[in-house]
């Protein structure tokens, strides 16, 4: 039991300690053996370090999708990608949002780009290698985006097999990578359907806040339709709780409801709210580079291990 500033008392949150008021994975993971539950209220497994890679490719394609904006899709794409690259995987990031936030978050000015994913989608003479950019993280490359992509949704309407255009243009790159993460725009329009159609899996970043929870049912309905009509192999990799603050009753209740509804589909790893993420974005670096020893960096490294543990046939 904890006494609050107003003199009242409240029950301690699972996974939290005086040294870990956020219920952060960095501490919770180390105490699993003693029976302490993680922030999701479930016993947290210890995820092993992935073995060293002896070969690369073909890539597993994962779409980061949520039609609500500001839930951590871009932050997760950047930092999960960087954490996977630290594990020895070759990572391809696809900025599939006209706002170009993924590109900005990696220190690239979208307005200065001559070629982007838009040109790759619309202009048949453009090759993926012409658009591909190296990032500051070894083993992680980027297909950037800018505001031009907003026109693609209209231009693709008349295309034959319009839902499969993205899959067609990135296909030549996949043999060179182990994972491809697609950062989708906050909508369920044609661009997002393209990402779902070419993906093997979906990760749903979900802010621990009521309005973010409301839209999950619609998103799941869209994923089901894509599975039935366009991509029978599409799997839900998991729901990722982001911007979590164990000190607020609302955040704890939302996380509990998500776990109640989706059970094992919810990742054990929880991403806490911290100012280090926006600081890293301003610096144009992943949190694993900007502040390698931070709890946020540790959380994304743990998420990388959990994601790899969930993949059924990850090659060594």
TrEMBL record:
Q: Give the residue ranges for region: Disordered.
A: 1-58
Q: Which residues form the AAA domain?
A: 60-236
Composition bias, Polar residues: 1-19
Report the leader peptide range: none
Task: Kindly give the Pfam families that the UniProt entry links to this protein.
Answer: AAA_31
The record's annotation in InterPro entries points to: AAA_dom, DNA_Partitioning_ATPase, P-loop_NTPase
Quote the function comment for this protein.
May play a role in septum formation.
Family as reported in the entry's similarity comment: Belongs to the ParA family.
The name of this protein is Chromosome partitioning ATPase
